[in-house]
Structure to design on (122 residues):
């Protein structure tokens, strides 16, 4: 039962909670006068990151590879700031990532968030 929960239940629960939270915030941001794009981008990033962490079905070991986790944190921070539009000064880097197809908000960015979550405990 525990293996079934880790393989199917937890990722499915993260998807359900993430989508419900995304819908709830998108419906009520007009009432609360909160910038919707900022909150929704963070919800999407953390939902995909959590989903990637839940995909690790084998036993998690305590890793001492702090450099890898630091790089993953920088990549997450970079893509969240890029999604929010804060990285206008990095025109050349954004152009290279655009040529590679890594700035597509619909496909590539959520997959990168998920990959970062998956690799964080690797």
């Amino acid at each position: 039962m525990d293996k079934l929960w880790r393989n199917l239940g937890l990722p499915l629960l993260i998807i359900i909670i993430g989508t419900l939270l995304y819908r709830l915030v998108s419906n009520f941001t007009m009432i609360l006068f909160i910038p919707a794009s900022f909150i929704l981008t963070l919800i999407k990033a953390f939902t995909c990151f959590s989903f990637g962490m839940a995909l690790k079905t084998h036993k998690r070991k305590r890793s001492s590879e702090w450099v890898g986790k630091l790089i993953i944190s920088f990549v997450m921070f970079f893509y969240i700031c890029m999604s929010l539009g804060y990285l206008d000064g990095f025109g050349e880097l954004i152009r290279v990532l655009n040529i590679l197809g890594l700035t597509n908000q619909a496909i590539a960015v959520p997959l990168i968030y998920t990959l970062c979550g998956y690799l964080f405990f690797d």
